[in-house]
Specification:
6-stranded mixed β-sheet, mainly beta, 2 helices
């Protein structure tokens, strides 16, 4: 039996003894059911100069005749004609989400084809055989299947090495595997408390194993019952300036998107405190240095008086000394402080001095 590649030569030979020997080679194209003589094939060796795929599985035998003996027939030899591998289909790039699956497929023309998938983890610089197990199956078939793919395989390249011994093998082009991941929020937005007309900022920290993240901040004005996108708020932080008291109780959250989907953050609540509103009442414009302590009053209680000559809630002229003295009153509402001031003039009253 002979196995060759298409286009190669193939020779069959017999050896016989006796006198007056002649040879006639015969061909069967139906597995040995019928035989036909080959014209001109009358030597001990029959050579096919250039085999073709159509001759694959043909059978050849030789009928040997002599002067004094009946003709004898050799056993049959089978011709196997393999073709060199021609790749007809290359695997395609594949983009998937982590935890899902995909497959790569190769096709080729030729006979007796063998398949071996290869993987490169360094952009195609080096290659190694894929073996079945773990995420892989079908490593030696036309289709390589991957299941439950982790992000670690992102960027791998796959190709198929196809052989048909002893003929020239073929290798497909490589296909790129992209494994996208889901976003993970590692730091949620925090509640923010400001004074009215302050500048609040809400922030989030998120990661993704592959690719980049995008952000869309949303606002709820009804305690989280409904949400709407904030135009232009597409960063990891959302900042406002000069915020009025009207936003007190508003909620802010962000939708973080990666290659495999989106994750919505917790909501951060904005608390806007107002500044106290009050008036200074019954503040004297002028006092004599010799006057007794004067009680300072304001329309809102709970504040703190300060200034020269101020003792608790009283102004003491003798302690303040002569001249224009500024007294102040500060009231705080959750850290939002309003301060108002007035001037008290302390004079040297001569008529009282004579008394």
């Amino acid at each position: 039996n002979i196995s060759v590649c298409s286009g190669s030569a193939a020779s069959f030979s017999v050896t016989a003894s006796g006198s007056g020997i002649t040879y006639q080679w015969e061909l069967s194209t139906d597995g040995g059911a019928t035989w036909n003589p080959i014209a001109g094939a009358t030597n001990a060796t029959y050579t096919i100069a250039s085999t073709t795929i159509s001759q694959n599985a043909n059978r050849y035998r030789c009928v040997v005749s002599g002067t004094c003996t009946p003709a004898v027939t050799s056993t049959a030899a089978i011709l196997t004609v393999n073709s060199s591998v021609t790749v007809t289909g290359n695997p395609a790039n594949s983009t998937i989400c982590e935890g899902t699956g995909t497959s790569f497929t190769a096709s080729a023309s030729g006979s007796g084809l063998n398949y071996q998938w290869e993987v490169s983890t360094n952009g195609g610089a080096t290659w190694s055989n894929v073996t079945n197990g773990g995420v892989y199956s079908g490593a030696t078939t036309p289709t390589l299947t991957l299941t439950n793919v982790p992000p670690a395989l992102n960027g791998n390249r796959y190709r198929c090495f196809i052989t048909s011994p002893p003929c020239t093998p073929g290798t497909t082009t490589s296909a790129l595997l992209t494994v996208n991941t889901f976003p993970v929020i590692t730091t949620q937005p925090s509640n923010v408390t400001i004074c009215e007309f302050g500048n609040p900022t809400f922030s989030v920290t998120a990661t993704t194993g592959v690719g980049s993240l995008s952000y869309q901040w949303q606002i709820s004005t009804n305690g989280g019952s409904s949400w709407s996108n904030i135009s232009g708020a597409t960063g990891s932080s959302y900042a406002q300036t000069n915020v009025p008291f009207g936003q007190n109780g508003y909620r802010f959250r962000v939708i973080v998107t990666a290659g495999c989907g989106s994750t919505t953050s917790n909501a951060g609540i904005l608390t806007v405190n107002t500044y106290p509103v009050f008036d200074l009442t019954n503040i004297p414009v002028t006092l004599c240095l010799s006057d007794p302590a004067y009680a300072l009053t304001a329309s809102a209680g709970g504040g703190t008086w300060s200034g020269p000559g101020v003792s608790g809630g009283n102004f003491v002229p003798s302690a303040a000394g002569l001249g224009a003295k500024t007294v102040s009153y500060a009231v705080s509402n959750a850290g939002c402080v309003t301060t108002k001031s007035a001037i008290v003039n302390v004079n040297e009253c001569a008529d009282r001095h004579r008394l």
